[in-house]
Amino acid sequence: MNENNSEISKSKWPLYISIFIIAGIFASYYLIPNVQQFLDNAWDVLSSDDEQKIKNWVDGFGWFGPVVLVLAMIAQMFLLIIPTVLLMVVSILAYGPIWGSLIIIAAVYAASSVGYMIGQYFGQTFVLKLIGKKTENRIERFIKNYGFWAVVVTRLNPFLSNDAISFVGGILKMGYWRFIGATLIGILPLTIFIAFAGESTENLKTGLLYGSLVSLLIFGIYVYWDKKKK
Questions:
Q1: Which of 29, 49, 62, 188 is exposed most, by the fewest CB atoms within 10 A?
Q2: Are 169 and 119 within 8 A, CB to CB?
Q3: Which residue has the higher pLDDT, 81 or 185?
Q4: Kind and range of the H or E element at 173?
Q5: What is the pLDDT of residues 124-144, one digit of tens each?
Q6: Rg (CA), the chain
Q7: How far apart are CA 38 and CA 18, in angstroms?
Q8: Cα–Cα distance, 37 to 95 (Å, whole number)
Q9: Reduced to 3 DSSP states, what percent helix, strand and coil does the chain have, rounded to the nearest 5?
């Protein structure tokens, strides 16, 4: 009995910590003028969809810039107007192909982990408020049918719902390291591509479009083959 109570108590710690952090951010925003000014400026910059503007803003943080990009990648799960791909491109523009790619992988790892933990600890009711019932149901069926590969193809394609699959993966209690492994395998080709094409916006847009279509086509063939086999 005591052991069960201990497990229940322990499982609620992430919830308490998350509530404390969110409450602290809200309190700081309304009580500390400098924090309010910083967050308002961050919102304006990150939601501008202007690569150069975001790059200049990130450059202004010096060595702290990579941390800002990681935090921005986590924040964009809730601020849906900030595209993940845009932050990835900015990382390459600001820090070059090698360091920029490492920052992207670290940022995606952090954001995916946070999304997974939100799904696992806050549950379906909370996640439905973030992504809606239709999206949640669609991704839940997708993961149940294809598991590991559902995560890989979603990460590989920048136009699919990356954040939603993290939330739903947590809800379904998909093994954490299996989920993270699939995430990193899927995001690596996209990161390498952006590292090579990120300097040219036009080439990048064209490449992302064709790359997404090819990945969807390959996965469509796999789905057809899998259903035919079953």
A1: 62
A2: yes
A3: 185
A4: none
A5: 777 777 667 777 777 788 788
A6: 19
A7: 21
A8: 26
A9: 85, 0, 15
